[in-house]
Amino acid sequence: MNTQAVHYELVPPHLVIKAMRDSGYKNAAYALAELIDNAVQAGARTVQLLCLETEKMVNGQKRRQVEEIAVLDDGCGMDANVLRMALQFGNGTRLEDRSGIGRFGMGLPNSSISQCQRVDVWSWQHGTDQALHTYLPLSYDDHPEQAA
């Protein structure tokens, strides 16, 4: 009997991300609702949705297409530790809180990757001059060494 241990990844990251991108959110409106819920839960009184459109030629006709979407709010903001957790699947500050929404740590990263190739999160608690930034790259453009 061979008792040699075989070590392998429990979850192949590239396959999990692909599966998560294709599941959970019917369209952009549902994904944006998740981000707006997060803002409200963080105490936001104002939430703004900004869209950047570009014109593209499709079948010989100019069409406007949304290229970037930003959700801005005046909630409490995140410190560096919380911001680091914000884009981790299954992590968050409300995992033990059963009183409200946002208790599984999946909303921000899962809703975002369902709609885009790159997720950027900016946050500040003491003015924009002390803003923190993190991102979740999902395209090979952000990690060319993985394209091979």
Your description of this structure?
With 148 residues, this protein is of the alpha+beta class. Helix content is 25%, strand content 25%. It is built from four helices and four strands, in the order H-H-E-E-H-H-E-E. It has a two-stranded antiparallel ribbon with strand order 1-2. Strands 3-4 form a two-stranded antiparallel ribbon. The longest helix has 14 residues, at 28-41.
Task: Tell me the layout of helices and strands.
Layout: H1 13-21, H2 28-41, E1 47-58, E2 61-73, H3 80-86, H4 107-113, E3 118-123, E4 132-137
Antiparallel strand pairs: 1-2, 3-4
Helix pairs in contact: 2-4
Concise summary:
The protein has helices at 13-21, 28-41, 80-86, 107-113, and strands at 47-58, 61-73, 118-123, 132-137. It is of the alpha+beta class.
